Amino acid sequence: MHADRPFPSPAADDRCPCTSGSTFAECCGPILSGAPAPTAVQLMRSRYTAFVVGAAPYLLATWHPSTRPDRLDLDPSIRWRSLEIVRTERGGPLDREGLVEFAARYAADGERGVQRETSRFLREDRWRYVDAVD
């Protein structure tokens, strides 16, 4: 992490923050740079990585227009630690919709926590996050 940047900046050969096991250059790096995510789960991984690295513009760009907020302020004191993909439904390269259930672990203010969510994704021109479902 750079002293003038509150979020980490992974190098191309670092392990991807999404905990896929691949390098950043092989996994989320190209998607954060504009390549379309081929599946809903890969979009979920890249969005998690965007939270890790503080890429709010990417998060807004990959949010479906019907549910996207006007702005997004990320808290640099939250340190995202790992992502576990729990379950997926549909969301493949030929699907139009998909669900991804995940658990994202974080640390904030000396405490550890986990965010669990089932996210809904739609593919029109590309995959986009829509919302969380119960």
Automatic annotation (TrEMBL):
Membrane-spanning segments: none
Domain of life: Bacteria
UniProt cross-references to InterPro entries, sorted A to Z: NTF2-like_dom_sf, SEC_C_motif, YchJ-like_M
Occurrences of domain YchJ-like middle NTF2-like (ranges): 39-132
SUPFAM superfamilies: NTF2-like
Leader peptide range in chain numbering: none
Protein's name according to its UniProt entry: YchJ family protein
Protein's organism: Agromyces tropicus
